[in-house]
């Protein structure tokens, strides 16, 4: 009986401690909000006008950047005809995703639909496709042996690859969000989700453990597209 009473007392004490911690956290948040409101109340008209101007300037720069990206072919998923075009395209954009494909490979068509959707969502990145059979020199230089392969190019250097669907749950039924997460792991797009929480729709169904990606795969070895491999 005494043990039960002691247990009940412990639970009650723990509940009170937890309640106090929650109250303290709430109080801190309220104080921060009050401080922000007070700060705004104390601003004179000139300060508010300057704040408004800074926000408008930031919005203007954002729109200018968007227009610059669009002028360079961002915002759509495009096919480029040759290896020469690949080098030109990657030199003029900071972030590029290039899909090396073959017409006879079914999985390439699966990637196409996901890349088309992501190209419209992430206009900060250029999305391209190049026929591997028409670019043998480039495929050899980049060590591309499996189709499909996505080459992820940052600042003119191919820094990472997504080879086949292994990193995407090893299934043809991966979601666009899964590919988006994988691209975010390589910092080739502005990913707003949690990289530690991949959006695999049904991990148990496929019986895979794809959260533990090889370090060489994510943010891995850098390959210079302007020079020969070692």
Protein architecture, described:
It is a single chain. The chain is of the alpha/beta class and 230 residues long. Helix content is 50%, strand content 13%. The protein contains seven helices and six strands. The chain has helices spanning 2-42, 45-71, 83-92, 106-121, 136-142, 176-185, 203-206; strands spanning 77-79, 95-101, 126-131, 149-154, 157-163, 223-224. Strands 1-3-2-4-5-6 form a six-stranded mixed sheet. A hairpin with a 2-residue loop joins strand 4 (149-154) and strand 5. The protein is flat, with a radius of gyration of 25 Å. The termini are far apart. The model is unreliable at 201-212 and 214-230 (pLDDT under 50).
Top keywords for this entry?
about 230 residues; alpha/beta; six-stranded mixed beta sheet; 7 helices
Strand order of the largest sheet: 1-3-2-4-5-6
Q: What's the helix count?
A: 7
Low-confidence stretches: 201-212, 214-230
Summarize the main sheet: 6 strands, mixed
Coarse shape: flat
Pattern of helices and strands:
HHEHEHEHEEHHE
Roughly what is the average pLDDT, rounded to an integer?
82
Cα-to-Cα separation, first versus last residue = 75 Å
> What portion of residues is helical?
40-55%
Structural class: alpha/beta
Q: What is the CA-atom radius of gyration, in angstroms? A: 25 Å
Estimate the strand proportion.
Answer: 5-15%
Total E-strand runs? 6
